[in-house]
Write a structure and sequence with these properties.
It is found in: Nucleus, Nucleoplasm. One of its GO terms (molecular function) is sequence-specific DNA binding. It holds the Pfam family THAP. This is Transposable element P transposase. Among the domains are: about 1-100, no CATH class; about 130-215; about 225-310, no CATH class. It has 15 helices and 15 strands. The strands form six sheets. Strands 5-6-7-8-9 form a five-stranded antiparallel beta sheet, with helices on one face. The chain has a two-stranded antiparallel ribbon with strand order 1-2. Helix 11 (about 405-415) crosses helix 12 (about 420-425) and helix 11 (about 405-415) packs across helix 13 (about 435-440). By secondary structure, it is α+β, with helices and mostly antiparallel strands.
Length: about 500
C-alpha cells in the first residue's frame, strides 16, 4: 500500500519485513508550544533528508501533505527507539544511520594543523639605558643632525634648514629610550605614523635610519590662508574660550635674521588642533586629514553664520546683539510687512465704502447686543443657530457642512412655504441649504406615482407597537398638485415629468 514502506531512496523496508516504521511527526491541537516547536523542527529535518536523494514529484508532494511518510527503524540509533508493546521514537529524533549517499558525496578531510617554527634570528645587543644610547650615537655619522643637549635625562637631536631660526625637526629621546618628534616646536601627535611604525622606541631601531625616515616625510602645509581662516584662527598663547570650540591655531615660525630687513620675518601656517604635521610620502594632498576636516567644518560654520546674519531678527531679539547685515535685513522685512498691512487696510476701507450699509444707532446697539450673546442664553436654540450661522459665514460656499438641526429647521420652513424659504435664502439674511440639498433629505423613499410600498411598510412597522385603542386611525387625503413640466432624473437618467396618475388608461382618459 502507498506509504507502507520506507521513504528513503534505495531502502526496501516495508511492513512485511517485521521492522517498525515511524510516521513523520505531525502537530496536534493539544500539544504545548514547546512540543509544537520540537515537532516542527523534526519534521523539517526529515523532509530535508528525504528530498536530498529524491525528486519532489506531485505524488511525493501529495504524500507529504497527507502525512503519509514513513521511515524504518534501521535509520535511527538504538537510544532513539523506546521498546515497549509498540516501538516509539524519542521526541525530536533525527534519522542518522544508513542514509543514502549521493555519487558526489565525499568524506570531509580533516584540516591540517600547521605548526609555525620559530626562526632563530641573530640578536644584536639591545640598548640598556640612555648612556649606552648616547655612546652609540656619538660613534655614528648623523649629519646634518646635531646633538644639542645630552645629560642623564634625555638626548636632543635637531635639524635646521636655511630659512628659519628654530630647528625644523627635533627628536627627543628620554630615559626610557622613547622618542618624541617636533616640527618647528609643534609636537607630533601620538597617533602619527612615525610612532606607530617604529613603536616609538629606539631600542631595536637604527637611529640613523629613523632620522632619514623623518627627513623624507612630507610636511603638512596646513589650511589655505584666506579671510575666513584668519578670522577664526587663534594663537597658541591665547586663553581658550570655553564657550567656543577652537579648531584652527596660528603656527608662527621666526625666520633667520636679515640685516637688510627692518623687522624680523616669520612664516605663518594655519593648522588644526590635531594636525599630524608629518605625513607619509605616499600622501597625495598637501594638508593632512585633520586639517582638511577642520577646513570643511569651518566653511560650513561660516555658511551657517552668513545665512543667520542675512535673515531678519526675531521679534524679541535684542538689537544690540545683531550685526549690520541682520539689522539691515530686519528693517527691510519690517518695511515689507508694514506695506502689506497698509495695502490690506486700504482694500478693506475701499470695500466698506463701496458695499457698506448704513444703519441707525438703535439697530447697531441691538445687533451688538445679539452678537454679545446676552440674550442668547435664554433660548438655547437661538444661541446654537447663531453660532452655526457664524461658522457658515466664515466658510466657503463649496465646502459648507450643515448641522442636522439646521437641516431640520430648513425642512420645516420649506414644507410650510417653499416660496418663503426661497425668499429668505435669496435675501442673504440667513445661510441655508439649497432646495437641491433639501430634496436629498426630503425624499427618504424615491417618489413615484401611485401607492409606494415603502411608505406602507414603514407605517406597518410603526403600528406594530400600538395598543388596540391606538390602532383606530383615520386616513385623510388632501388635494395636491403634480408638476407637469419635463424633469431629468439624476439617479436613473430617465426623462420624467408630465402628469402620470399611475395607470396608463387613467392618464390617457384625463388628457
Amino acid at each position: 500500500m502507498p506509504g507502507a514502506n520506507c521513504a528513503f531512496y534505495g531502502c526496501s523496508t516495508s511492513r512485511s519485513h517485521k521492522l517498525s516504521l515511524f510516521k513523520i511527526p505531525t502537530i496536534g491541537a493539544a500539544d504545548t508550544d514547546y512540543t509544537k516547536s520540537v515537532k516542527r523542527k523534526t519534521r523539517e529535518e526529515w523532509l530535508r533528508l528525504i528530498q536530498r536523494t529524491r525528486v519532489l514529484t506531485p505524488e511525493l508532494k501529495a504524500r507529504i501533505e497527507a502525512n503519509n511518510i514513513y521511515i524504518c527503524e534501521l535509520h535511527f540509533k538504538a537510544e532513539c527507539i523506546l521498546d515497549g508493546k509498540r516501538k516509539t521514537l524519542v521526541a525530536g529524533s533525527i534519522p542518522t544511520e544508513n542514509l543514502p549517499q549521493k555519487k558526489y558525496d565525499a568524506p570531509k578531510q580533516e584540516r591540517r594543523v600547521l605548526e609555525r617554527k620559530q626562526l632563530e634570528v641573530p640578536k644584536t645587543p639591545p640598548l640598556l639605558d640612555i648612556n649606552t644610547f648616547t655612546e652609540q650615537l656619538q660613534r655614528k655619522e648623523i649629519e646634518p643632525w646635531k646633538i644639542v643637549k645630552s645629560n642623564n635625562d634625555e638626548v636632543r637631536l635637531e635639524y635646521y634648514d636655511d630659512v628659519h631660526s628654530i630647528p625644523k625637526y627635533t627628536v627627543i629621546v628620554n630615559s626610557a629610550l622613547e622618542f618624541s618628534v617636533f616640527v618647528f616646536n609643534w609636537l607630533v601627535p601620538d597617533q602619527n605614523f612615525v610612532y606607530v611604525e617604529n613603536k616609538r622606541s629606539v631600542i631595536h631601531v637604527d637611529i640613523v635610519g629613523l632620522l632619514k625616515y623623518i627627513e623624507s616625510s612630507k610636511l603638512c602645509e596646513g589650511l589655505e590662508e584666506d579671510t575666513d581662516v584668519k578670522s577664526v584662527a587663534v594663537d597658541p598663547t591665547e586663553k581658550p574660550n570655553p564657550t567656543i570650540q577652537t579648531l584652527i591655531v596660528r603656527h608662527s615660525v621666526p625666520k633667520v635674521i636679515d640685516p637688510e630687513e627692518p623687522h624680523f620675518q616669520v612664516s605663518i601656517r594655519y593648522r588644526s588642533v590635531g594636525c599630524d604635521t608629518l605625513t607619509s610620502s605616499e600622501h597625495s594632498n598637501s594638508s593632512c586629514k585633520p586639517c582638511e576636516s577642520a577646513l570643511k567644518k569651518m566653511k560650513r560654520a561660516v555658511k551657517r553664520k552668513n545665512r543667520g546674519s542675512a535673515s531678519p531678527a526675531k521679534a524679541k531679539a535684542p538689537l544690540s546683539k545683531c550685526g549690520p547685515k541682520k539689522l539691515q535685513s530686519t528693517v527691510v522685512s519690517t518695511r515689507l510687512q508694514v506695506k502689506d498691512l497698509e495695502d490690506r487696510l486700504q482694500q478693506l476701507q475701499k470695500e466698506i465704502q463701496q458695499h457698506g450699509v448704513g444703519i441707525s444707532e438703535t439697530l447697531e446697539k441691538d445687533i451688538l447686543t445679539i452678537m454679545g450673546g446676552k440674550n442668547l442664553d435664554a433660548t438655547p436654540h437661538m444661541k446654537f443657530f447663531w453660532q452655526e450661522q457664524i461658522k457658515l459665514l466664515q466658510s466657503s460656499k463649496m465646502g459648507r457642512r450643515y448641522h442636522p438641526q439646521v437641516i431640520r429647521f430648513a425642512l420645516s420652513i420649506h414644507s410650510k412655504s417653499p416660496s418663503a424659504y426661497r425668499e429668505i435664502r435669496d435675501s442673504g439674511a440667513l445661510v441655508l441649504p439649497s432646495e437641491r440639498v433639501l430634496r436629498d433629505y426630503k425624499n427618504y423613499f424615491k417618489p413615484k406615482p401611485g401607492i409606494n410600498k415603502e411608505n406602507v411598510e414603514s407605517l406597518r412597522e410603526k403600528t406594530t407597537s400600538f395598543t388596540s385603542v391606538q390602532r383606530y386611525v383615520a386616513v385623510v387625503m388632501d388635494e395636491m398638485k403634480i408638476q407637469s413640466s419635463l424633469v431629468f432624473d439624476k439617479v436613473s437618467g430617465d426623462l420624467i415629468g408630465f402628469i402620470d396618475l399611475g395607470d396608463p388608461m387613467t392618464t390617457f382618459a384625463c388628457l
